[in-house]
Amino acid sequence: MSPSKPTAPAKKKAPTAAEADSARVIKKYPNRRLYDTQHSSYITLTQVRELVMAHTPFVVRDAKTGEDLTRSILLQIILEQEAGGAPMFTEAMLAHMIRFYGHAMQGFMGNYLEKNIQTFTEIQSRLSEQSQSLTPEMWSQFMRMQSPMMQGMMGNYLEQSKNMFLQMQEQMAKQAEQVLGAFTGKR
Q1: pLDDT tens digits for 108-143?
Q2: 17, 51, 66, 163 - which has most CB atoms within 10 Å?
Q3: How far is Cα 187 from Cα 178, in angstroms, rounded to an integer?
């Protein structure tokens, strides 16, 4: 076996959390093609969506620069899904989200939405687990009850979420007053 020729070290980037957990690496080439390095083949955006649906950890990197493009690919998938017939986001919701960019609450909003989606997913998972032991007759009854039950649960959850947000907003206003008071000499 002949020794390989030493090459200049590639400019390394710090691994993301996804890569640290041995995530699948997908390279995006300038021609917009995606290359799955694990399977040594090109894949489509639909196949990347399948990875998301299967909870497969992955990272998308620019083939030339190594830049992490995972977020932009995920946004492309959302855009395709939104254009595909049954959109999840209303125009009003999208407009509200856009207005938060550059707003003082931008950093908080992403975290807030993420925690709400995690909670919703946990509720959905628990309902799914509970429904697995149902007979067909019980399942039928469960499905008839689920809509009002989910509406009630989600209504309560959203009310709690709204109250938490308002409480946080009040605390931030008080803290801002205190900080500004310290600078202006008011107490």
Answers
A1: 788 888 888 888 888 778 777 766 776 777 766 666
A2: 51
A3: 8
